[in-house]
Each structure stands twice: as structure tokens, then as C-alpha cells.
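Task card 7
Instruction: Convert sequence to C-alpha cells.
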Amino acid sequence: MKQQTVAFLLLRTAIASVFAYASVASFLSPDNWIGFFPLFLQHAVPENILLNGFSLYEILLAVWLISGKFTFYAAVLSVLTIGGIIVFNLNLLDIVFRDFAIVLAAASLAVFSYKNKHN
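Output:
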């Protein structure tokens, strides 16, 4: 396996594991995760629908990243998702500071997969 292929696999797996973990953890302990949603969403959508819907989205995104299909688009969606989490939780910077590394990893994946965005 070429180094680049292994590097892409590791990067996709790293980003996907974050989404998979958060999804499973939010199903197991929803009270620990609902607070990361902006208040306007918490007031607009019932808590269980909001959390379960987002968890399903995260699982699908994780599977998409692992699949290696249309990686550019999955990476861009990952950047937008993690970026949104950061923006709406700047008051929790002691917790979300790690997300800066994840969003930059996703951005790197998008940049390096751009030329093959239809694969």
C-alpha cells in the first residue's frame, strides 16, 4: 500500500472515529450531549429528536468517511459540522479546543482529496 493511501485511510478513520464516538455516547448518555446544541435549536426541536437525529447524521457521516467514496464532500461536511460545533460552543473552549485539530484534519482531507472529488 502506498504511503499516501495509508495516510488518507488513517485521516478518514481518525475523523470518522470522532463522529462515531460522539454518536454512540449521545445515545448512551444524552444529558451529557444536549448542552452542546445552541439554545435556539433546543427550543425549536424536541430534545430527543434533535439529539437522535444528529447522532444518526454523525453515524452516517462516519460510515461515509470510512467508505472512501466522494471523500472531498464528506470532508467538507465534516469541516462544516465540527466548525459549527466550535462556533456555537466558544463559551466551552476548555472542552472544544480539541475540535480545532479535528476541523483542520478534515480541512486537510478536503484539500488533498479535491482533485479526486468524484471518486
